[in-house]
Amino acid sequence: MFRKLIFLLLSITLISCEREINIVPTVRDSRLVVDAEIENGRPPIVVLSRSLNFFTTIDSAELAASYVRNASVTIQEGNTIYPLKEFELRDSSGNRFYYYSTDPQGASPLTGQFGKTYKLSITVDGNSYNSETSIPLLTKTMDSIWWKPAPNNDDPKKVVLMARVQDPPGLGNYIRYFTRQNRQPFLPGLNSVFDDNIIDGKTYEIQVDRGVNRNEEIDFETYGFFQKGDTVSVKLCNINKSTFDFWRTWEFNLQSVGNPFSSPGKVIGNISNNALGAFCGYAAQYRSLIIPK
User: Fold this and answer.
1) For tag attachment on the chain, is the N or C end more exposed, with fewer CB atoms within 10 Å?
2) pTM for the whole thing?
């Protein structure tokens, strides 16, 4: 009887401690979002948009309206300033996408070069935004890539991709990788950026997971695998510290969404004037192979 009484008192105490919590999301003014990159041998690509509130219902019309049009965008390399032109793309569904790049028909189109530094300037609605990035020298390289059967798997068509990578002596060699399966676009890995704190100055072999489309749900039953008969390409990019920090923190936050035990984090961009996003430079190396059926 005494134990029942104690249990009843504890239950009443716990019930009385309950509080109803109403969470009202903060509605913030939109901010400029910059997705800009330049790669060796390729022209720059700059996509400008406006941020959306967390609980915004997103559809194709909302996304189309978020693009920033008619901005003034330039990139400076050395003493030369290159104006960028706005371009429009349409997909098979009629959706429109907008980006800024150098005019290929212009007098002096800009393409990325190893070891160069680039300064991005954007003017929108009377506000100015600036950023700077560099394309490093190509010092960390893939020696070769190959495939082998997927371990602990009953599907004989599944394979894993391997690469042998050479890291030069000295810390501070950062990389980001992408893969392409057949005619699909290059996609970054789920964890796509790495430093050399552990493997400094070593040649090592590593499994290269197939890249993922972050706009689609990831099937972890097939994640990372390629198939026999695939034509596979790997794009390994040397990057600087600011590019590494942006994607490291961005991917951490993406994978923390919906996890109540994850610690909050801030995405570290490199755009001035309280804008979101980053201007990234890539020193890219490519390797391809055909996996026989």
Assistant:
1) N
2) 0.86
Residue owning tokens 């493997």: 199
Spell out the SS3 assignment of 232-290: EEEEEEEECHHHHHHHHHHHHHHHHCCCCCCCCCCCCCCCCCCCEEEEEEEEEEEEEEE
- The CATH architecture of the domain made up of 141-240+284-290 is Sandwich (2.60)
Residue intervals of the chain classified under CATH 2.60.40 are: 32-134, 141-240+284-290
Tens of pLDDT, residue by residue over 161-182, are 999 999 999 999 999 999 999 9
Please say whether the structural domain 32-134 has been given the CATH code 2.60.40: yes
In the numeric block, the tokens 């801030």 are attached to: 266
- Res 249 pLDDT > 80: yes
Q: What is the mean pLDDT of residues 261-282?
A: 90
